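Hi all, long-time lurker, first post. I run a small reading group and we've been trying to get comfortable going from sequence to structure in the token notation. Rather than ask abstract questions, I figured I'd post a concrete chain and ask someone more experienced to write out its structure so we can walk through it together at our next meeting. Sequence below, copied exactly:
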Amino acid sequence: MSFTRQFLALLRIHLGSLPARPSSALTIVVGVTCAVGALVSMLAMGTGARPGIRKGSTGDPIVVFESATFIEGRRRGTDVRIYFPVTGVTKNLEQYLPELRFTEGRMFAPGLHELIASNPCARQFRGFELGDQRLIHGIAWTIVGRFDLGQAQQCTVYGDVDGLMAAFRRNTYTAVAVTLQSPEGFAGFHAAVAADPALKLEALRESDAIAEQFKELNAILHFTAYFVGSIMALGATLGAVNALYAIVDSRRRELATVRALGFGPGPIVASVLAESILLAVPGALLGSALAWLLFNGQAASPLGYSLHLAVTPTLILLGILWALGMGALGGVLPALRAANVPVTTALRAV
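-- Answer (accepted) --
Happy to help. Here is the structure in token form:
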């Protein structure tokens, strides 16, 4: 009988006997679920003169000048101190962000100390009701509007850029945001900015600019995620080893029979490894699903900063690969043990 036929026959026997040993199988599935869920959820904490720039209703290019600073907030219920950005912008913000929809109040007036805040701000922090005042560098700024911003669930606050810069005695903007006619126009826009010596700017996609701003914080979050994920993966792998050892020991009669029938050690090793990996798959899918259901679109506050959580397909794929690795490592020693038990010893043990 060929290697493949022996392998498939053994795998069918192993999987068919799992209902008789549910506790061992559940040990592997639950351990992998916890490890993958922790990894994915933590990684979720951690886009002429102006070519290709789309124009607004007035015919002017949609260009928003920005200046950002961080302010302190207090989380509802716990009173934990959190820092999040207040972004000063020019008056054409609504053209740049067409998904912005006011639910209360109005847009801030240029030249006045007024702020608008997203609805998650009021749900997560104190002091963001309409009419509330926030102190920024000793100046009281009034909340005059509340809005939703698409599906985003993080706290977002905007105010007049000139007023914010005056409060901090700044004379330069921190960023200039433009809307292009199409994503394909970025290359030409980038080249035009680089070719103009009068512009001391670097053209970046929004996603790249945000990644650069949070590079150091993301490095800390990723290290923490992989460290915690590795610890949990080690525990899940050891649990899988123990569970598979128990499964192998309970199958000594089966192993003795198939060895006596001429099955080689290679198919036995491969079938036990395949069983371990297959048992890890439900844990990977369940852990990723729980991370998505519980954390996707939510806000977190690591190290005192408010961040948006996004469980992406890339993270889910990483979690599945992580689980398959745990399954493979957890199955190696039990597989070798199953293949190296002499036929006579196994027969005397039953």
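A couple of things your group might point at:
Residues 215-250 form the longest helix (36 residues).
The beta strands are 63-74, 81-89, 100-105, 114-118, 133-136, 139-149, 157-160, 175-178, 299-300, 307-308.
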